[in-house]
């Protein structure tokens, strides 16, 4: 825990600037930001150093294109000003100008989504739209969870495991893991999946932000405003929904997990209905199973794979998105994936969904759909009882599992006070092992 700004921050001190900017773009609470090893001596941070910090964070091109939340940017600059003023150093003019500009910017009522950016070891960046509301210890109602960051770090260290492989992710959420692996590793294909319409919508947008061509991404972040009318309506509803739930402040992250997803699920039907009524009121509902993903079927960048719920991005088979609810396995869809590896992060948090999750794993791992994958599942162990319940369910299905060593290097910024465990799960008849 460091709360002082390094006296050694200067343009040449790439490492310190990198440390500060990676935390800024992941929106690490300002009071928890580490300012570098050689901290203290606030009195010595010069004008150029201050400018360098601003250029690596709030004033950067990246921040302009994929801004962190307005309140976070304000808090960050305010904190810098306070620390510098406390130490009686001369402040650069830019810092005051910037702060005034930020104060003048109005926070829209529905500004409940912002961007977070994650820096990969190969210098690529994952840019994601996430919820702005931090509920407890960096977790939010619709955000990237610690287990996904942890699992990605582990995967980066297992190059051969994923090289030229077809990977399926269960419960992708906002897509961090898949986007990071597609950018960092040489995969054959990656199939993102989730069932929740709001999550699926943001997942689709996040994949587009990261993988559509440069010209398209240069239009960010305004491209959403230019996107199709239905998309805009959907996004507006999501933002409204998130701002309604922003008052939710809880200490128990398990409860948060249940509440945030359950409240989203319960609100989704209404939301979808409203969008449908307003936007496609005259259209007949052709297929109940497809009513929630009209945004996928009406988006020109995505094409369904042989009339299924699996969509491919820009006709390339390497990035796919599948609408998949573990409670309703559609053999036709699942046969299309043929994964070599199955990944999942933070999907073991609710006992009631464990039987469905385990059944899905069993079907894939026992070769039902034509391939013999191995699964790697990362879980934040908030409740040992829930974890044990999962392990027993795996054992009852005759599946084998082992707990793996954690990654040796931590790349991203996240709390791991609550332990995160990575399990390898496989079927005993798997001859590929
Ligand atoms: C805690 S989030 C984890 C998201 C992401 N893997 C991460 O770690 O950031 C759990 C995810 O599982 C998905 N999920 C929950 N129940 C599901 C089900 N029955 N079928 C498919 N996905 C489900 C949720 O929509 C959500 O995206």
TrEMBL record:
Domain FAM86 N-terminal: 19-101
GO cellular component: protein-containing complex
InterPro entries: FAM86_N (IPR029426), Methyltransf_16 (IPR019410), SAM-dependent_MTases_sf (IPR029063)
One Pfam family recorded for the sequence: Methyltransf_16
GO molecular function term, any single one: transferase activity
Keywords recorded for this protein, A-Z: Transferase
Family designation: Belongs to the class I-like SAM-binding methyltransferase superfamily. EEF2KMT family.
Protein name: FAM86 N-terminal domain-containing protein
Species this protein is from: Magallana gigas (Pacific oyster)
């Amino acid at each position: 825990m460091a709360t002082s700004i390094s006296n050694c921050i200067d343009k040449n001190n790439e490492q310190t600037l990198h440390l500060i900017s990676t935390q800024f773009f992941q929106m690490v609470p300002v009071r928890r930001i580490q300012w570098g090893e050689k901290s203290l001596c606030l009195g010595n941070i010069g004008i150029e150093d201050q400018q360098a910090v601003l250029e690596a964070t709030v004033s950067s091109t990246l921040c302009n294109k994929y801004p962190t939340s307005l309140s976070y940017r304000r808090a960050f600059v305010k904190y810098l000003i306070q620390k510098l003023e406390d130490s009686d150093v001369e402040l650069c003019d830019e810092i005051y100008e910037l702060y005034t500009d930020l104060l003048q910017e109005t926070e829209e009522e529905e500004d409940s989504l912002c961007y977070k950016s994650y820096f990969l070891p190969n210098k690529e960046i994952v840019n994601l739209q996430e919820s702005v509301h931090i509920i407890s210890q960096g977790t939010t109602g619709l955000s990237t969870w610690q287990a996904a960051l942890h699992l990605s770090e582990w995967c980066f260290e297992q190059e051969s495991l994923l090289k030229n492989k077809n990977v399926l992710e269960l419960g992708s959420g906002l897509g961090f893991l898949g986007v990071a692996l597609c950018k960092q590793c040489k995969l054959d294909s990656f199939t993102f999946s989730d069932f929740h319409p709001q999550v699926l919508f943001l997942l689709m947008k996040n994949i587009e932000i990261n993988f559509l061509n440069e010209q398209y991404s240069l239009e960010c972040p305004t491209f959403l405003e230019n996107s199709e009318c239905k998309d805009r309506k959907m996004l507006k509803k999501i933002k409204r929904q998130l701002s309604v739930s922003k008052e939710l402040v809880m200490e128990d992250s398990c409860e948060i997990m249940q509440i945030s997803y359950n409240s989203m699920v319960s609100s989704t039907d209404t939301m979808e209905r409203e969008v449908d009524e307003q936007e496609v009121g005259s259209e007949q509902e052709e297929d109940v199973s497809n009513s929630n993903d009209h945004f996928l079927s009406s988006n020109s960048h995505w094409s369904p794979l042989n009339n299924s719920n699996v969509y491919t991005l820009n006709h390339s088979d390497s990035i796919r998105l599948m609408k998949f609810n573990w409670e309703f396995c559609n053999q036709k869809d699942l046969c299309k994936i043929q994964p070599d590896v199955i990944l999942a992060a933070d999907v073991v948090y609710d006992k009631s969904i464990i039987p469905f999750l385990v059944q899905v794993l069993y079907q894939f791992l026992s070769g039902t759909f034509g391939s013999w994958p191995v699964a790697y599942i990362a879980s934040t162990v908030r409740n040992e009882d829930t974890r044990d319940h999962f392990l027993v369910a795996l054992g009852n299905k005759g599946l084998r599992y082992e707990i793996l060593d954690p990654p040796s290097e931590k790349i991203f910024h996240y709390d791991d006070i609550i332990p995160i465990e990575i399990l390898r799960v496989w079927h005993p008849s798997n001859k590929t092992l």
